[in-house]
Specification:
homohexamer, alpha/beta, Arginase, Chain A, eight-stranded parallel β-sheet
């Protein structure tokens, strides 16, 4: 299945630095134009949940810019997601930079609209609170989901600043409480760094979330870690969430809450490839903060992860045909 | 009047790079310890009203760091504000990075507390919405005030994103509506840059705000511009607000809404000196955004402006003794 | 005349950091779709004529990004070019980064296509050699033109590296030799910096080019300088070329051949406004080199200059209706 | 043992970017106020021994700033050093940026004062010559000590520039000559990079210093390397010195003498944890050079290492109670 | 063999930051003066083959600057290449930044000149197309060679932009077609990243090039990978080409075509050491792009690789004496 | 008089980025080779007198690099200093980064050597303390000199850190005390910024130093300011010292002690041109600190000032023939 209107512009024909920057040089379509899209790349330019260093609101734009570096074919498989699926840049989601609750509503509504069109969403954050309204929209369609979550942080905290429940440290506590995720089908990989206290770990344990610290990952290795993850989510509908702070700050300095001692890029890439065949209903790559990395290589890492996810998602899509 | 406990550490005794960074190397005091303070330097680490590029929440810290470059004596007068007044770093104001309305309340309350101690506040922002709760606290004590406002933008807009009334583009519209400012005693200097439409200018005209564009400033020159400003505010209680985007981006790249074609540093310094003798009840320097200027020279400019303000404010204080 | 399909997205409705970046948040149209466009904004992502520090090939993208900061209305006139003319982002011109002669051909051909549609081109370079193929296309339609040229350099050199005639130091020597420009109607403003020898000045003198150094500008001032320029070009068809190295490096560090001692932003803006009423058949802003200014404020300056040009060009367009 | 006056400010209550920056958001105390302090965090803002790229004089300030990212509890143990020990920021040590010998005297004297109060010092450099006066003060109290030294360089050179004996390449040669260290109890881990000649290796061998190159580390792995180190120092009084150039420049670009091919952050963290139970009488993290990493992630790495050291030191303290 | 006129300046005598920057602080000689030189370090300041982000034309200068950090002796062997061979900085090769074909001719001619003097060339690029004219010169002397090629990319593409055959993506396709390399003696190590299609892999397979992806490397490890390489080239005359994009972008951000997921510095260093004893007739380190890494640590990595190559090359030279 | 061996390499023949970087692409000569040199460009890579932010030790190297941008002819006069005088890069002066007194001795001795060869020195600092040993060497030959001193700071302080008399804040107090300068023939232009106290102003007044603040300069203008300076030094032997912190930080961020509110580049250039005809016996441009401006445009400003000085000095030289 190759549909020329959905092909990415090649750097062999048009130099990579040329042209208006869309995700992976794909055609841009509004949702209304997107009737025949299989997978939609959507930016969520919002960081209203950020408790410390802001910036991910600028993430989608820098990620689009850097994504010109991505070429159409995976070097190991020789295959292109753009041959397997109709993929488009659906632009950015409506947001509100000065009102958290309004932004959550706008994002959820936008994703309901996308899902109504049977488009599989791959989102570019935005801070991690962005995942919550996306999960809300997905759960309306799919019910409680499993999740493979790559992150330095559990994001399972209850509240900040005296009872404020919606921050980028709380989305998955909310998602579990709201029944969007089946916590026994949630695995978190790469946890590390100093913590406020053990509240998030206790919350995770109580709900049977499988939490894999970087130290446990170091013992298990890539293959076994992912075997644990795959077994856990099995064939349930599964969301993939990749926080760019899961690699070490050396690999991803452009993020708001870096934690020393994370993944190498190779480890991250290899783990994503092990998602092949899972029943993925959506995914995101979040927390790229351009002001903290003007060089853009954090964003390049992020869009490389998005490309790996696209390859897996497009393949799954065909497998399900 | 020299009170050794309020003196700044000298770079001749302790190198400027040494020590915990407080504003201008002054002693830090909590408000409860601040019974004998005349002028308080307060950080407002908040940018919840920012509609575009965030970052001023990090302003006070970078400004404290750069303020180690400030020495105690003004080179023209040979006098030091630290000899004329008891000045201290009162630390940062409580804020809330994820809830605008809660933050406005916290800030106002903190300034009421400061004003109860008869401390003259000189604040380091934060985005420009920070000025609103400060004005609310001041107006409780002083009633409607005049204002000399240096800025590329009027900040007199009504609302953003479909009716949201509290952003860094709206503080002075709110302040006028709430009766905190006497608009006929408000002068805005340095306006420029493309605009959404003429709503803010119309609002200003309707309320008799005196708006001086950079082009008008260019015709008037420093002296006449400030003569206009001084005549306008006369001897009424007056607030001074200095947005670091009033200089040209070449002088202050580290800000969220730079507008090409602004003041030089010399023009800005000379204007501030012309505030001498006004009845100043408070002042702020806002919109320093460290992520957009890691070099820190925007913050250096900002704290140099703060030092000029301090000189004027300390002198006035004595004049009123 | 307001045509909603040509309006720029407002930062009051959609935050400035959101969405795929087009010039000034205008709709993007391919040339084939551009039948009703009055003024076209076109990127020329090419720096094949650069003899020293490369990078302007990345200029259009960073300029599109920064142009999100531009709002729709000019603060002095209260009018918007987007109300006066149908303006669109026509995307980037075809180029060839590794073959100078092929690139010159591709660019010229693309502009012939644009001019066939009666679109007035405002281009974003690219290095200054980009102006040559644009002038070739324009001269086919208009014959020899006048030019107001803002630059630190005359770009009137003959050749480099042993006879190579097409570099960013030679475009206007070629344009004069080829009869694209009427040299007696060409004025260059802002010349300065050390030179190889006096060859370019001699070439200029020989052809009656009016060369105004920064030192002469300093004596004349903005108004008189522009009076000289306006008198020179009169009502002949005129091209405007603005090299971002005409401002001082403090205002525009992101360029390949900075020359110490240039214009301030205010001088540059005021000069552009004095182009009002000239018979402008095309314009460009060139030599923005993003790798030498990751902060983007050079590009912000450049797009601010583009907006001033747009205002003048749109107004002229109406005047000619 | 929890003493509220010694607790770190939590990012759940006060945002991390707020407030005057002290080490790990701990209370600041002058030495005179520090009668009940168990572990003191001290900055040594000095780089007078630097033979090449200066900057570590600015280290403590950037490290304090970045240390706001550290939270109070270790994620693996669930315990906080701030519960186990009374820890405070003791400010910066007196120095002299223009006279090496005077600076050495000032630093030693300051540490004698600290040790008189029975405070366990954890210092933030400064260049590596800072360790010498600290060792002098410690040796007065403890006699010759063992040392676990993480570094790309042995710092065992004799002299530079024709006989100058006090540089950041010579501190441990001096310390051994002066009998501050028992060389047979000194282990150096991570040595690499080109060298002037084999003088330092010969000096080390002659004095039975155990030198572990990065290549030997690669063969041994973390566990065995640290087993060697632990066996060597046994239960003698031991100093820990961590030069931030021991990680690879990718992890710590902000240092004066980077050497390609160093530790990953994970390796470094895991090694520090293996210091648990040693008889540590002092420690330092040195050579963070902010001008060479304005992003601050080198400093973040450094303070993360300090936190790991604090955890070990606080635990030991209790064990010895 | 020690020849004082060929010794590097020591940082123990003259600080590393002092003096005109030559490669590794070696004496500079013109080719005419270079009669007694064994190994020549040559800069190729050219990036005319670059299809995307330019900058390697500035590589040699930044590499010279950073190479002041290299000391004369290898820490593992205790030996110095400067004792084993007469090594000099031969300055930069003539180039032409605006004409690809002319530049190729100039470079080849320069290397023919160098080879006529029996100097073993170690070049600092420049983009990867630089290797082609060097190979042309070498092949004139040595006939078809083997090659050990460290790179993220195969550089075996046919053409770009509609038939342009000379870019930094095509040099080794040309070299094989022209008979400069014996493809069955060519091994490429570190291949990864998305690709246009499988054309390059097919070309490689067809010509029996041994292509080792990063994934295969991960399975083989350093020792086995290099065993494969050594076996392949055996004792034939062999060229070594090291593209600085073979390490991960975290280790080498300053390059034009970074690919996420590459070598660590340790892996790269260890592989180079395994070249000991091969019959090396020339080598290069290419694609350092200073504008994309002003910090210079990419260049530091590159010159460290050059030093490792020098050690191997100087040792081989003696072995052949 | 044109001597081809002393000509600068032209960017028309060899691209500016190519070749080993010497000052203005001139030939490098050791002092022993410099028998026929008229004007020597000498680097002083030393910042041992720096009391705050270090870095000028790296100044000469970055200035050499940026000086490739300078072409051979002055655009106003059409003349080249390289035609008028034999000018060479004499390399860097011996220094000692860790011992102030030893460095002062090394520098003075080196300049005595240079002056013995009748070479007119134009130095590139280094911090401002570098001027002291140069003045010592010059005074041995010429006796007490006049000085035109462009600076934000008087550098007339007595001592720092409890009696340390040799810092970059004290060189001209020492020079006056030692009789190297005739204080009544010293003019300082551009003084500004906060000060410790009035000690330096008092010292200046007491010795009849003519101190022109930036405010006085603003009233006088360029022409009158320089008329004052010229009248003061008359035809006595005169030293020119240009501290790069005399321009505003917007023009020269890369310096250790920036003071807001300084010269524009145009003002600085025009003032230097007014030195024509003075009896200049030496000059320096100091305090360029590369770590605080990796972009290099501060250094570009500095070498542009050096070129203006060269033009004046070479012209004078001829006038005296």
């Amino acid at each position: 299945m190759t549909d020329k209107q959905f092909d990415a512009v090649s750097g062999m024909d048009v130099p990579r630095f040329a042209g208006v920057a869309t995700f992976m040089r794909l055609p841009q379509k509004s949702i209304d134009q997107a009737n025949d899209v299989d997978i939609g790349l959507i930016g969520i330019p919002w960081d209203g949940g950020t408790t410390n260093r802001p910036g991910p609101r600028h993430g989608p734009r820098q990620m689009r810019d850097q994504s010109s570096m991505i070429r159409r074919v995976h070097h190991l498989t020789g295959e292109s997601p753009f041959d397997r699926a109709r993929i488009a840049d659906l632009g950015d989601c409506p947001v509100n930079p000065i009102d958290v609750m309004d932004a959550l509503t706008r994002i959820e509504k936008h994703y309901v609209h996308i899902l109504d069109k049977n488009i599989l969403p791959l989102s570019a954050g935005g801070d991690h609170l962005c995942s919550l309204p996306v999960l809300r929209a997905l759960a309306k369609k799919h019910g409680p989901m499993g999740m493979v979550h790559f992150d330095a942080h559990s994001d399972l905290w209850d509240s900040y600043f005296g009872g404020f429940k919606y921050t980028h440290g709380t989305p998955f506590a909310r998602a579990i409480e709201e029944g969007l995720l089946d916590p026994a089908r949630v695995v978190q990989i790469g946890l590390r760094g100093s913590v406020y206290d053990m509240e998030d770990r206790d919350f995770g344990k109580k709900h049977n979330v499988r939490m894999i610290s970087i130290e446990e990952f170091d013992e298990l290795g890539v293959d076994q870690t992912m075997a644990v993850a795959r077994q856990l989510v099995g064939d349930v509908k599964t969301y993939i969430s990749f926080d760019i702070d899961c690699p070490d700050p050396a690999y991803a300095p452009g993020t708001g809450t870096p934690e020393v001692g994370g993944f190498t890029n190779r480890e991250a890439l290899y783990m994503l490839r092990k998602l092949r065949g899972l029943n993925i209903v959506g995914a995101d790559v979040v927390e790229v903060s351009p002001p903290f990395d003007p060089s853009g290589y954090t964003a390049l890492n992020a869009v490389t992860m998005m490309f790996e996810l696209l390859c897996v998602m497009a393949e799954n899509l065909n497998a399900n045909d």
